[in-house]
Each structure stands twice: as structure tokens, then as C-alpha cells.
Design a protein that fits this description.
615 residues, alpha+beta, seven-stranded antiparallel sheet, 32 strands, 28% helix, globular
Length: 615
Amino acid sequence: MRINTTGDVMKRIFSFVLACSLAVVCFNGISICGVAEGNNAEPSAAIVNEGGYENYLQGQSLNKAQAGAFIKGRALNQPLNSVKDSSGNEENECVNADNTGVYDYTFEVENAGLYNIYIKYFLPESTGKKINLSLKLNGKVPFDEAEVVELKRLYKDESNEVKKDAGGNEYVGNQIECGIFQETGLQDTTGIYQEPYLFAFDNGNSTVSLTFDISEKIIIAGVYLKAPDRILDYKEILDEYKQAGYTSPKCEPLIIEAEKAMYKTSRSLTAKSDSSSPDVTPSDPVKQLINYIGGSTWKENGDSISWLINVSEDGLYKIGFKYKQDQNINAFSYRSMKIDGKTPFKECENLKFDYAINWKLYEPGDESGNYCVYLTKGTHTLSLTCTLGETTQYYKQLKSVVSELGDMYIDIAMITGETPDANRDYNLFEQIPDFNNKLNKIRTDILGISDGLRTISENNATSLITSLENMARVLKSMKDNPYTAHNYLKDYYSNYTTVSAWLYDMKSMPLSLDRIIVSPANNRTDNKRSGLLTRFTFGFKRFAASFATDYNDYSASEKGEKTLKIWVNWGRDQAMVLNSLIAESFTPESGINVNLEITNAGLVKGILSNNAPDL
């Protein structure tokens, strides 16, 4: 029989106090993070349904509003003004809003149902700050996510002209805000829910209250209720096309250079240069040419890029994308596509861009062929938005599993402490209620997520799948060894933190885009890579140019009488950004040229060599 000594008792008391302290710190840390993400917004005390959006929908008995339903809200107790945006578009019933008040809109609803809420707004001040609003329906927050809803800004290139530095290399100009009215549905921007939120409205008068957490002025041109869009499957859309007699037009393919985007929802979505391949257009083995957009900066869920397309005839068109996706190894990056603000069919919500280290053409389709869309003659807007795609359900499951793993770790640490004694028996299976069933459940959930991700990645192993399988292995070892389960705590914690980190990494969907090709449905698109001789010649020219190019000199302009020499000990990417800023603003405003050089030499060496920089 085992005799508990005074030392054992004291150790158990100490471990219990330590674990409780850890739990309190973790709890407070989570609360602090939550407040920070809401820009210090006070949490609402009245929430219709405790929990998130899914619980809110499950508690509703109403159906979606009838197709075509549209209800305009009436602003209460606010003066209305006429406002023009930078494009000359005028709205006559505008409310000047800021973060000092609550802005109420009343709606007369004749048919109860689930509606989307849309807001039309304009940002006259170009501060670049994030805009969050909090929404209440009849005085109460309907669900947690409605307390922080982000409104996107729109950016564009300041000039359509290509900028070049003194060496003939192209660089990106300034990004400026568009300053136009834009209409958007209130929705989740984390990528979990792709469509705008559904809100339940009963018959009669209802009031929507909006508050903003940004100090700048925002012009509200209107708040509307709309029936949710009914998005059909491609097969249903194709049947409608056939019944309408739509056919493929007889015209040449339309090629849009992706770097020439019309609008972007983030200032970081700038055009870039790739001089490593002849397959990107345009390409040059010596000079840096602006030839694609995206990459590592186009990976956040909700980030969107829009292009103008101008087709010459009515008809059915297929849309192809020349892309590179070399960061999500053995996995897909997802985009949702809209044309003129509408999703053409269900499959456009989850366009899958496969892992590709070289530039390749992707034309969305299924086993029957490429997807087609009907376009009328004239100008249209095509947009691609970063989304979680098919991984959405697994992200939500993983989020739940990570929470359960964290709770279980605290339960174990309260008994064993952070460093368990390998020679003791902590009786975890007896001291933690239902411990065996918890291990089984979490392990089963993890393996289910792993199997699902392996299926959508077409049986390719990814780093996330490996991390999940390692976590499942630890849980199985603990279950199979009940008397020594505490010895796996360090391994448990290590794998737990790795899986937790994937909650962020899983939402990363980088994509580089070179071209968008809109071609008649019956056309065959050339998908050939450049030939061996072309690639060899391109590579040889790059190799030869490396002996003549000064990679340390990033002069923004030709050297003149007024020239500053600046030394920086940075990487090439950072130096190129600084060079762009100098060429765009400093040199034109001051008339002073700048000779920017990358070096690791110190100032003393420069003085001794009579080659010291000015800065």
C-alpha cells in the first residue's frame, strides 16, 4: 500500500496552486486578446443568442426571404445630406457618421424572414485605418460576430503609367484610396462564412442600430434589407443556358494582365516583378518588369482584387487564370469568383488553385468540361476573393478540437504540474472525470479532420495533416498507457502548440496571378510552357547579366548635381520598397536624386576609404 508523505502532500498542493494560476493567466490572456481585436470596443451585455452565428441560425424558425425582396431603411433623427464621391457619383440621402453616436435605421417588414443587411458607404478621409462597426437588432446584438463587422476600403494604382528607375527596372507606384461609394453585405471577413450574414426580421417595424469604432468620418448613403441570393449549381445554370439558346461567340480571346487591376481591398495588394521565368508575361532576363499580382501579400481571407473585362459579343465564355501557387505545399489555395458582384454558380465559391512551382493555366471545370458563363457585350467586373473554400468545415472543427485540447492540458497540469515526476502514479484516469472517453473523442475528431483534409488534397500529405496525426499518436499513447500517461505531457504540449498554430496558418491562401484569359467557350486555350531552348536561353541571359548588374545599387534616378548617397544594410526587397518611395515622393518634391546602395560596411570603413555616404 502506498503511503503519502508530507512531501507528497505539499507537492500536490503546490501543483494545484500552480495549475490554477496558469488557468487564470490563460483565461485573462484570451479575454485581453478578444478586446484588442475589437479595437477596445465594450462588449454588449444583451445578446439574443449566447454564442456565435451558427447557434443564432439554428434557433430561427423563419425561412429565407422571398427572392427579389428589397427594403430600404429610414434613418432616424439624423440630418440627410447630398454627397458626391471622387468619381462624381451623387447620393441624396446621406448620413455623416463617426464614432460618437448610434445611427438607427428603421425597416417596415411585410414578410417575416431571414434577410441580408447591406450598407452603402463612402470614406472621404484616406486614413487607411480599419473600419469596424457593431450592429444591434431591436436593441440587442443578435450574435457574437455582429459586434465586430469589418468594412473594407478600396484602393487603386495612383497612375496607370509604368514607372522606371535609373536602371530601366519597373517599380510599383503609390496606392491610393478610390474614394467612391461602395455597397457591401455585412459578413464575416475571417473566411468561415462566405455569404453575408442572415438576420431574422419579424413582421412590422424593426430597428437596426450601427456604431463605428473609427475616429474619421464615414458617409452612409443607405442601409438595406435584401433577400439572400439563390445560387444554383452549374448543371442547373447550364440547363438554363441551353433553354435560352446561348452559344459560344466567334471572337478572339480577351487577355487581361492581372497586374493591371481596377480595385483592391488592401494597400498591400500591389503588382510585382518575377524575372525568374520566361513563362510569365511580360518577361525579361535582365530588367525587372511588373508582370504579376499577389503572392504572399494576397493570402488573407476577405482580400479581394477586381478587374474590368470588356467583351465584344454576347455569348458563353470560359475564364482561365495563369497562376503560380508555390507556398501551400501539396494543398490548394481557394478563391471565390464574382462577376458584376454576383456569384455565377455554386462552384465559383470554391475555385481551387493547385500547388504549382511554375506558372500554369487553370480553367475551372468538372468532368464534363470547362465552366462557362454568359456575358453580354460590353464592360463587366470580375473579382476574386480569398477564402477558406472546402477547408472551412475542417477549420471550424479544428478550432473546437484545439479548445478541447487546451482544457485537457489544464486538467492534467492541475494534477501533475508542468514537469510531472516520472516515478509517480498520478491516476489521471481516476482523477480526471471521463478522461478515457475524452481522449477517445478528441483523437477520433482529429483523425476525422486529417482524413477530410487528405481527401480534398487528393491524398497528398501536408504539414497540417502530419501535425494532426502526431497529435493523435500522443493521445493514443496516453490511452494505451494509463499508468504512465503523465510521461507524455511534454510531447502532448509540444504537439498541441503546433496544432494551435495551424489555426492561423490554415487560413493563409497565397496566390500569384499573371493573366486572366476570357475566351469563347468552344475555343481551345494554349496551355504550353515555353520550350527547352527558350528556357535555356533565358537562363543563360540571366546568368550573363549577373556579372554586369550592380545588385547593390538601387538608385531611384540618374545621378545629378544634387545627389544623396545612402547606405542600407537591408535585404533587396526592403531596399526596393524604399527606392520606390524615394522615386514616387522624395525626388519629385525635393528635386534631390538619391543613390541607394546595399552594403554591410560600417561608417568608419567608408570614411577611411574616402567613400562615406551622406546618410
